[in-house]
Structures are given as C-alpha cells and as structure tokens.
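#data-curation
PF: Archiving a pair of folding outputs for the training set. Convention for this channel: one message per protein, sequence first, structure tokens after, nothing in between. First:
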Amino acid sequence: MFNAFERAVAFRYLRARRGERFVSIIAAFSLLGITLGVATLIIVTSVMNGFRADLMNRIIGLNGHLTVQPERGRALDGADAIAARLAALPGVAQAAPAVEGQVLLSGPGGTAAAAQLRGLPAGALRDRPVVQRGVRQGSLDDFGAEDSVVVGARLASRMRLQPGDTVTLLLPQARGGDFTEAPRSRALRVVATFDVGMPEVDGRTIFVPLATAQSLFGLGEAASQVELLVTDPARVAPLTTEVRAMLPGLRVSDWQRANSSIYAAVVVERNVMFLILTLIVVVAAFNIISSLTMLVKDKGRDIAVLRTMGARRASVLRIFILCGATIGCGGTLLGFGLGLGIAANFPTLKALLLDIEGSVTLPAELRFLMSLPSVVDAREVAVIVAMGFGLSLLATLWPSWRAARIDPAEALRHG
C-alpha cells in the first residue's frame, strides 16, 4: 500500500528536527495515551472476567449450573435415569441427583443450629472443584458411608466441631406434613469441613450422602432435583433449551436465571467500565488528529514542493496516513504487549506485592490487588486491539485529506 518514497518521507516527518520539538512531543503523548488506554482496557477486562468467574464459581459451584426439578410436588422420580441421560449430552461435565432440605443439627456439648442439608452421591461431591479447593479439615475420601457428613467451616466453628465428632440431624416435621409423626433423626460422623469464602454458605450448609438424605426425608429412590455442571458456564443457555426439549414435563432453570440480579449487575458494571476506559483511547485518538493537523500545517511548504516535483495527491494522503498510523498502531501494539503481559502474569504480580508487604506496609489502595483474579479472554483482547487500530486509522483521515488538498501555488506564495 505504501511505496518506498512514501515510507521514507513519512518516517522523516516523524523524526524531530530543531524547531519541530513541539509537534514531536504531542505525537509522543499520543503514542503514550494509546499505549496506556489499550493496556488498561486489557488489564481491567481481564480482572473483571476473573472477578465474575470467581464470584459465579462461589455462587453456583455448590448448586450446579443447571437444575432439573419436578413442576409439582417435592420428589423427582427416576432421577438416576434422568441424570444418566443428561450426562451423555455434549458440554455436560457432571449430572447427579440431589436432595435438599432444612434440618436441625445438634453437636457435642449441647450446641445446636439450623442447617441447609444437601444430599449428593459421593463421587459428585468429590468432583466439584469449589468443594475440593475449599476443604479445610479432614478429607473427602471418607465421604460416602451413610453415617458421614461434610460441614461448612463457619458452622463447624460455631458448633465447635472437628473431623471425627458425631452430630445428630433432626427433621422436626415429616415431608408428608403430618405434625403427629415423630421427628426423624440420624447420628452422623463429621469427616471434613469446607470453606468456599461465602459466609452464608459456610455458615449453614452440610453435605451428606444421597442415600442418607433420601432415607431421612422418606423419598425412597426419588430425589429433589438433578444438578448439572457444564464445561462452559457462560454458554449454558443453548444447553438449557436442549434439556427443556428433552424433558418437557419438568422445570429446567440455569444459574443465569437463578442469579439474574447478581449476574446482571456484574455484566452492567463490566460494560460501563469498558465504555469509560475506552474514552482513554478516544482521547488519545484526538491527540493524533491534533498532532497530525499541526504537522500538516508545519509541512505545508514541503507538501507544495513535493506536489510541484510530481507527487500525486494520493501519495501525499498516504504519507500522512502512515505518519498517524505509525503513532496509533504502534501505541496499540505496545499497549497490547504491556496489558497482556500484566494480565497474564497477575499471580506473579500478586506474589511480588506480598513480598513487598512483608517489608513495607502497603496502602489500602494497593492491598486489594493481592486478592484480584485475572482471566484473559482472547476474543475481548482481539476486540480491544482492533478498536485501537480502527480509531487510530480513523483519526488520520481528516488531517491527511487536508494535506492532500493543499494547493501548491498558494502554499508557496504564503509559506
């Protein structure tokens, strides 16, 4: 697109000579603005992606990404068969029957608390990453026997429970609604405690084997629901539609609908942040316009000489487009490298901050960086880089057109 003559002239104009420092300084600030804008966008979007993934994993990691429940009644018959059918679908990482209910928990020393009981097959619980990472005491290897229970760390601390202690589960009212029926109880042994970082979960949730929960609630072989974990939670909607078509008589809901308010708030915050930070790149693009406009004004006599020597208007247009594109696209590439380098090496940055904090007390404004996650999305990075290139090229068009429209005679007469 650019011949050797146009490249030589463009790069000559970009090198500052005596008396041209001011234009070059503006061009340098334009380059710096594009670099910082693109880098900041990549870093912030990666951190927001990590924050969203971490938040959603904490919220939905225990409950599954998609649930299948009966439309009426509290029991889902044939839950094992339904789980087996759903597990064969593409994109499903796990499908397991589950039982949920409220119980009273009585521990040693007379301590008692209400708890949210969740019954799962032993393998399904062990395969849930949020639970695996959250184990604080004991081991999930012992979970599976009918007398085993896994307790939230905050609940265990409040009731002074340790692995090996015995607790009693009490169901004050039978599921049939008969108040005259005697309460059901079961003595269980604590095999592990877990902490997922959410007080409302760690302070009231317990896990028991599926058979224990079915026996306690009198469900027989039925379950409360079937829970699915998918390989890509962000694209759960098509799978939800497919499962609804497969199981028309059941209620199917995904994590986006169940947590719609939280999900919407995170998405809106991320989009607004992206829009605000995009203004940095836009402002830098305006700096490119101003620097090129000043360069065209400063080089008016040179442009006239080039035109009288035979240079075409299209050639002059391409010379100044190349000048602006070098600043904008160069800044975009530098921002891409800087932003991607920081976002992809966030754990190293956090480790460095931890080492610094060991010797120097960091201010609160920097301390939060040590807990931020980062997830780089290649598509978003590509969009940011494309936006940087696009704005940079658009910013060069008007000044370059003005340069190509200069009349050689008028420029030499008044130059």
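PF: Second:
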Amino acid sequence: MAARVLVVDDDPMVTRLVRINLELEHFEVEEAWDGKTAMRMMHEDPPDLLVLDIMMPQMDGWEILRMIRSDDDLKELPVVVLTAKVQDEDIARGWRMGADGYIVKPFNPVILGDALRKVLEATAEERRARREEAVERYKDIYLEDMP
C-alpha cells in the first residue's frame, strides 16, 4: 500500500509539482493550501507523513509544526519541511521544533522522494535520534525568536 502524504503549501504550482513527482514515486498525495485546512485534515484522517512549507499566510509552517508536536494525537507524525528558507537559523529552528527532514526549494524530485522514504522507514525513536543529531550540529546557531 502506498504511503499517504499530505503536502501543505500555499502555492498551487508547488503543490502540483510535488504531487506529480511523489505520485511518480508511488506515493498517495493529498494537498492543503493553508494551515487550518491541514490541521483539520490531519485530525480527520492522519496521513503517513506531512510535507510542510514554512512561509504561508495566516498560519505559517512554524505554527503548524508547533501544534503538531504538542498534539497527543499527532505528535509522532513524521514531518518534512520543504521551504525556500535556507538560512542556518531557519534550518536549526526546523530541527529544534521537531522536523524529521529539511529540504530547500528549489528541490530535486529524486532527493525529495528518497528523503520521504527514509523518514517513513525510520521508527519514531530513530527519527527522534536523527533530530537530536541535527540539533547538535546546529547548536551554535543563535535563535532569538525560538519558542
């Protein structure tokens, strides 16, 4: 059975590009263009993995990630950030907030598919260990607005 992936991005062109590439990699893909819709969809029928943009109006990806990690029903949901935010501070923040992967746009479709498979194959413990390793790599990055 194909893994179900929810792609959350306010740019329909990006969601379409991600959808096409992930479907070619045999993923089942659903889309949400805003945080409120994404949260509703995740509570109604949680996907196997979330691909999350950061820069979105109203509710940005940081807020969505914070809500997921503090929600007992969703806190173990694998989340891969897919964003144009490439600064070390952004990457460090993603890992510290609980991302299981961080991919920058523009992205290589093969790398995206491989990254999603790697995250899906890992146990929750392995994902936590990977996050801790990434946080350690970025430990010297100063994050003024880190929650």
